[in-house]
Amino acid sequence: MFIIFGTRGLKHTVSESPVLSNSCPNCNNGNLVNKLYRRWFTLFFIPMIPLDVVDRFYQCDSCKSAYNENIKTILQRSQDEINENQKRAKLVFAKALIASMTHMSIIDGDFAAEEEREIMDAIEGLPEMKEELMAIHQNVKVTGNQDNQVFNFLNEARNELSSEALINILAQAAVVLLADGAIEKEEENLMKEYLIACGLPKGMYQTLIDKLMQKDMTKIKKEQLN
Ligand SMILES: [Zn+2]
Fold first, then answer.
1. How many angstroms does the Cα of residue 56 sit away from the middle of ligand 1?
2. Which of 21, 67, 142, 225 is least surrounded by CB atoms within 10 angstroms?
3. Residue 86 Cα to ligand 1 middle (Å)
4. Among 69-73, 146-150, 155-159, 216-220, which is the least confidently predicted range?
5. Three state DSSP letters for the chain
6. Ligand 1 centroid – CA 22 distance (Å)
7. CATH of range 76-217; options 1.20.120, 1.10.10, 3.40.50, 1.10.3680
């Protein structure tokens, strides 16, 4: 009788290596599973003795794309970069937001309680940068746009954020403008200056106000229902 020896490679999951969840760069939501090819000594085509590892890689459990093991480091590095950029963008956004809201609320020479409440709400929503935002708020409250500080924050935002983010900031500032119930001429003019500083058309002023008025109406209706 013939005894048939041989070798063959088998793919195994490396169970001690953590799965990289939802991180397949190809399909975006597949999990990357660490795999290895091990050569086996076979007897009658049946693997009997493990020999050497011939390849290690990550494979997506969804689209089956395979990646070099370096993918783990690459993904980690880009995640760090994403987190860092996100943190930075959030801070730039928040600083411009608080500076313009505060500035808007003092421009008519009277700092109303409703205006202060809107600003405090916004700061409370960003607890990780609360101290820095409180300092900006206090400073703008006392010195206004001294050294062009408010417009500098808006400029920074213009350089780093999308126009959607800028519109969001100005919409919040417009909430302050509407908070005391009346739109003063100074407030309207300032909002138009903000729009220009953000590179947005001055005509957007009316759109912004109309939108917020509508929202305010639905808020009131909801409150009446409750
Ligand atoms: Zn995939």
1. 17
2. 225
3. 25
4. 216-220
5. CCCCEEEEEEEEECCCCCCECCCCCCCCCCCEEEEEEEEEEEECCEEEEEEEEEEEEEEECCCCCEEECCHHHHHHHHHHHHHHHHHHHHHHHHHHHHHHHHHHHHCCCCCCHHHHHHHHHHHHCCHHHHHHHHHHHHHHHHHCCHHHHHHHHHHHHHHHCCHHHHHHHHHHHHHHHHHCCCCCHHHHHHHHHHHHHCCCCCCHHHHHHHHHHHHHHHHHHHHHHC
6. 8
7. 1.10.3680
